[in-house]
Amino acid sequence: MENQNNVTEFVLLGLFKSQEVKLTCFIIFLFCYCAIVFGNVIIFITIICSHLIQQPMYYFLCHLSYMDLAYTSTVVPRLLRDLIAKQKYISYNSCMTQLFTSHFLASVEMFILVSMAFDRYVAICKPLHYMIIVNRQRCNMMLLMAWLVAFWHAIAQMIMVIRLPFCGPNLVDHYACDVKALLKLVCTDTRIPNILVIANTGMVVLATFLVLVASYIVILYNLRNHSSDARRKALSTCASHVMVVVLFFVPCIATYVPPPNASQNDKEFSMFYTIFAPMMNPLIYTLRNTEMKNAMQKVWLTKLFLLFK
């Protein structure tokens, strides 16, 4: 079928219609974005400048912080602009770029969470072989695979959308160029594209979430043979990971697994994995982690000392 695309730009309808609510949300989301930038930059620099970078768990956490910052920066600045702007137009090319970038970076983040779960599984269930199994070479290989798989997922998603005809209207009921919102504007039968979205995104997210849940069940099962102190430390670490996984995956599942038109709350659900989860990650990984807090004190006290020396 020939792609007859009459749309050169889209209008993002955003979250709210009331101007007062928009101004309030602008202040709230601006605070959230500043917290995301500040928190993830602090974690990234702390790990890079301390001995923690040598440990696989913190090596993955460093990459997760970078992904949080990069991913939110593809969506939130545009959301903030549209909350106070009169014109909410986004060009077709910019929309496709945002679609690709957001899916690409979110997928990388998803697979990094899988790598972190694998790291915890080996550390708890195979502690004697931990340094052999989770060496730096294998960590880099897992990160490379995360980037490659995420790229193919995102490029397949974007190519599918680009091949579809948009004849108008051009009003996107979302605050970002999300694939499900764009499919509602296509002027042809979208049953197959909708099935592909569920298969390519929904089922992948659901399967990954189930794998993560299964890994933590195995970890909890193996903890019964450990001492009480070891169980307490392992549970504290795993609890942080589980909170991050739930914040990220559950809203994704609620957005992409249901069939089209089954839910009208996609943009509300997406706020959790685009804004709230990246904002909470630094708090979850620092407030519950003594080793991270000690490293932060050493790194930043040293920098302050050198600054005022």
Summarize the structure.
The chain is mainly α and 309 residues long. It has helices at residues 19-48, 56-73, 76-84, 92-125, 130-133, 136-162, 179-183, 191-222, 228-256, 266-287, 290-308, and strands spanning 9-12, 89-91, 171-172. The protein has 11 helices and 3 strands; from the N terminus they run βαααβαααβααααα.
Provide a descriptive summary of the structure in words:
This protein has 309 residues and is mainly α. 74% of the residues lie in helices and 3% in strands. Helix 1 runs antiparallel to helix 2 and helix 1 runs parallel beside helix 10. The protein is globular and about 65 Å long.
Number of DSSP strand runs = 3
Shape: globular
Measured between the Cα atoms of the first and last residue, the distance is 69 Å
Content-based structural category:
mainly alpha
Q: Could you list the spans in which at least 5 consecutive residues all have pLDDT below 50?
A: none
Q: Specify Rg, calculated over alpha carbons.
A: 21 Å
Order of helices and strands: EHHHEHHHEHHHHH
Kindly state the percentage of residues in helix: over 70%
Beta-strand residue percentage: under 5%
Strand order of the largest sheet: 2-1-3
Helix count equals 11
Largest sheet: 3 strands, mixed
Kindly report the average pLDDT value.
Answer: 86
Note the topology.
Layout: E1 9-12, H1 19-48, H2 56-73, H3 76-84, E2 89-91, H4 92-125, H5 130-133, H6 136-162, E3 171-172, H7 179-183, H8 191-222, H9 228-256, H10 266-287, H11 290-308
Parallel strand pairs: 1-3
Antiparallel strand pairs: 1-2
Helix pairs in contact: 1-2, 1-3, 1-10, 1-11, 2-4, 2-10, 4-6, 4-8, 4-9, 6-8, 8-9, 9-10
